[in-house]
Structures are given as structure tokens and as C-alpha cells.
Amino acid sequence: MSTQTFVLPDVGEGLTEAEIVSWHVAPGDTVAVNDVLVEIETAKSLVELPSPFSGAVGELLVAEGATVNVGSPIITIVAGADASGPATVGQTEHGAPAEASAEGDGAVLVGYGTGGEVKSRRRKPAATAQERVEASVGVVAKPPIRKLARDLGVELASVSPTGPAGEVTREDVMRQASQASVFRNIETPEWGDVREETIPVAAAAAEASVPAVSAPPRDDAREETIAVKGVRKATSSAMVQSAYTAPHVTVWTDVDATRTMELVKRLKASPDFADTKVSPLLIMARAVIWAVRRTPMVNAAWVEAEGGAEIRVRRYVNLGIAAATPRGLLVPNIKDAQDLSMRELARSLEKLTLTAREGKTTPADQQQGTITITNIGVFGMDAGTPIINPGESGIVALGTIRQKPWVVDGEVRPRWVTTVAGSFDHRVVDGDGMSRFIADVASILEEPALLLD
User: What residues are annotated to the active site?
Assistant: First the structure.
């Protein structure tokens, strides 16, 4: 028998570390090439790592929740009589296992690549012991589905399964989550009875020949420490870089969005959009794309070049959508959004949102954005001063759309009103440009028929 050690590969472009989220195997389990071993979280995405070896799991070298560097050993696999033999593993340019053949069964290890998500070509394995245990407790769901349900606050017992074997699928969980309210009633914990406490250091007291004072019991619920890693670590670094590099200026205006709400209602009733989610964000996205064409500098980028700073004006729109997910803030973007029809854009927005909530957004999905929309209205916020995504010069915030009194033709009437705000890099965009851009976006929300021009 021989023991193979699997090291953490670089599953992205220049990945340096990742967190071990959940092991899919335990010591003693038999695995084949391409069976999923572990789910990891990088700074941008969740990734399932397949096994480059076949055999029996020896030792899990890293605990769940730990962060390890690329190249660190994470698991050992022992090739024995019951296994098909060790795989012959090559290396990718990042040092990750590439395609490899397992002796005996001709299995092929799927390359990790740089896309941020592993795709499996293996035959569906028999149910593991862990999955059989799950089935015995009443709800049949695989570990990744259970984790997704926990992250989204979905009770699996309340989900109607649609899987062929009666199991809960990813789509079932996402559908249940979409039907739930964005906000849930949460019991507010009481403040502790002790306002302050001092915990003496016993060693210091003994050294000073002073009897140590017995400390009162510590209320662990008063404070919590959360490690900064993964998406939160990447987000904080990017936001600090942007806030202290680009001089931000924010402008905003109130908008009568009644006609936008009427258009959304008509689109929802249209057979062309029967299988697609339609919301005011769709009209907002089209408005931003339209306005960029009239003020292209908001879609430009400030670039520090060797011969001096440059402004790169981009004649295309990779439209970023800020997405609040269980893993933190992600900003995936829709590539070449200017070429999409209204229906295609609606489908792209829906796919982007679902992928982000599932934690399957890849690093490539978040790169090369040109301008971003943040829909703070879904959280009940009227307006804000968003921070520009690094590499861009503008970000637009759509506030909540609610009925308010509004003057129309000299009369006060109830109208659907929202606020559109935008933050811009003042090195790239002047005041007249940013104001004209926000005014253009507002004009589309007020009269979507302008999009027909």
C-alpha cells in the first residue's frame, strides 16, 4: 500500500489561501478519482475539490473552518486492495493536479483550471454512508444542499422535494428562499446585568504577592469575535483601497417611477417573460446602459501607467450587480450587457442573482466590471453613498420604491417614488458629467418609453 498526500491547489488566478468549509469524506471512506473530497471557500467563491487519487481516506490534515495556504497538505489517501490504484497526477501551471488516469478503471481527473468551479465528468457514485444517514432522519438532502439551506435560513422540513429519489434539490431550496421575506423577525437579546467587568490576571497578582480576586462569571453572549477571511477579507481590502484612492463624489435625485412600475407589471403578464423574473432592477439596468452611452466617462477607468496616469474609456458595459449573499458582498457582472435584449438582460440578472446566493459565483464573474448597480431598495433604504468598485469610476444606488405624495400637473397625487444616487471618481468624471448621467437614469425611470429611441 502507498499513501498519497493531496495539497491545496490554486483553483483561481493567483489564489494564495482558502478556508476549509466542509469535508465530504471521513477517514476510512473509499474514494475514486473525481469524487468530491472537500468544499473550500476562496476570497471569491465556493469550490468543490475532487480527488486526484483513488483509495481509502487516511487522515484529514486540516479541520473545518481553518484557513490554509496553497500547497499545504490537507488530506492523505491510501491506495489499497479495495481501490483501483493511485492516480498518476500531473501539474497545472499553478501547481494544481491536472488530468490523471487511475489504473484499472480509466477514470480521468477533471482539471481545476482557473474558472473557480470544478466540473465533474465522473459517473454518479453510490450513496455514501453520510447520505444514507441523512435519508434516515426524514429529509433526504446532500451536505451541500443542507449547508445552502442553513445559509439562506430555510427549514428543510418545509421544502417540497422534487428530486427523482424524493430528495431536496438546490432548486427546491432556492425556490423556498425566494418566497420568504427578505427580513425575518429576530428576537432581540437582552443586555447583560453587568455593564463592565475587570478580569484580573492571576499570575500578575501572585507575582505581586496580592491574592487573586475571583472574577465574576463572564457573559459570553456580550461579545463575539468573527475572523476576517474569505469574501469579507477581500471586500474590506477592496473597499479601503477604493475609498482612499479615488476621490468620491455622490449626487442623487428623487424620481417618479410610476411608469416604471406599470411597465414591470405589463412585462410580468407578458408571455415572453413567463419564465423569467421581472423587477424594477431590470428597468434600472437598461437605464444605466442607455445613460452610459450618453456619458461614457462614467464607464471609464483611471489607470496608473508607467508613463503617467491614463483614463481608459470603455465602449462596452460589463454591468456589475452588488449582491448580498450568505457569504458576504459579491459584485458579479454581466459581460457586454449593452448587446442584450430586455428579455436576455432579465434572464442574465436572474441567473446572476441565483448563482450568487448559491455561493457559486466564480472569480471570472467578478472581474473586468465597468460600472455597478447596488439595489439598496430591497433592504428598505431610500438612498446611500456607495463606494466605487475598484477598477471602475461609477456606482449607482437604487432606493426603495414606495408610494408618496407627488405633484402632478399642479395636483398632489400618490405616485411610486424612488431615489437614484450615484458615487463617482472625480479624477475621471466632472460634476456636469455625473449630474447628467444620474439625470438620464432618472428620466428613463420616469418614462421607460425613451428606451425605444
Answer: 426
pTM: 0.58
pLDDT at 349: 95
Which domains, and CATH codes, for the chain? Answer: 1-123 (2.40.50.100), 126-180 (4.10.320.10), 237-452 (3.30.559.10)
Instruction: State percent of the chain over pLDDT 70.
Output: 72
Asked whether residue 243 carries a pLDDT value surpassing 80, the answer given is no
Q: Extract the C-alpha cell encoding 383.
A: 438612498
Rounded Cα distance between 334 and 135, Å, is: 39
pLDDT one-digit tens code per residue, 223-236: 666 666 766 677 66
